[in-house]
Amino acid sequence: MTLLAVERIKLFSTRSPWWCMLLALGLTLGLTAIIAANWDNAPMPVIGAVFTHTFGLYVIMVMAALAVTTEYRFGTIKSTFQAAPDRTSPMVAKAVVVVLLSALVGLAASFGSWGLSWVLASDNSQLALTSANDWRHVAGVGLIYGAGALLALGIGALVRQTAGAVSIILVFALVLENVVGLIPNIGDDIQNWMPFLVAQKFILGDPDASAIPDGAGPPAIGELSPWGSFAYFAAIALAIYVISLVVVKRRDA
C-alpha cells in the first residue's frame, strides 16, 4: 500500500498527467459533441457516441509513458530503486496506479460522450443502453484505456526517453498500422492482427443490427470476436510490460 501511495503522489505531483487527462477528455468529448450535433440523417447509434475514443486513448498512452520516462529523465528512478531494491514492486505499483487512473478516464470519456450524444443528437432513439453489446461499446472504453496504458508503460520503461517512447506509440498507431495494409498480397492479412485496429473491434465491432441503418456501421475489423480482440490487445500489452520488468531488473538505472 505504501508503494501505491508513493506512486500516486509522484504521478499527481507533476502537471503533465493533469494536462493529459484534460486533453484526452476535451478531445473525446469535443469531437463527439460536433458529431452528435450534426447527426441528423438517421438515429444516432451507440457506436457513434464512442467513435472518437481513440483520440483520448493516444493521449492517455502518452501520459502513461511519461509516468516512467520522466523518472529516468530527472534521475528520481534511482532513489525509487534504492528504496525498493527488487525494482519489480515499484514498477508494479506504478502500473496499478496508472492503469486504474487511465481506466477511470476512459469511463469518464465514454459515458460523457454517450451523455453528450443523448443531449445533442436530433434523434437519440437508438442511444439507450439496452443490450450487452451497447454496454460493451461504452464501458469497454475503460478497459481499452487501461490496457493501452499498460502497453505504453512497458514501452516507456524499455526506451526510457520521452521522445522515443511517444514517437513509437504514435507512429505505430497512427502510421504503421495503416501503411502496412498497402503491402501487396499480405498487407490486409497482417493489418487484421495490428493491435490498435484489433482493439477497435472490441469497441466498435458487431453492433446490434437493429441500431444502425442498412449498409451503415463500421467496416469489418480483424478475425477475432470482440472479447477475443480485447484479450489479444491486453495480452500484447501484458507481454510488453513483463519484458520491460525483466529489462529494468537487469540493466543499470
TrEMBL record:
Keywords: Membrane, Transmembrane, Transmembrane helix. The chain crosses the membrane at residues 18-39, 45-70, 91-117, 137-159, 166-187, 230-248. The keyword Transmembrane applies. Coiled coil: none annotated. It comes from the Bacteria. The keyword Cytoplasm does not apply. This is ABC-2 type transport system permease protein. It comes from Saccharothrix texasensis.
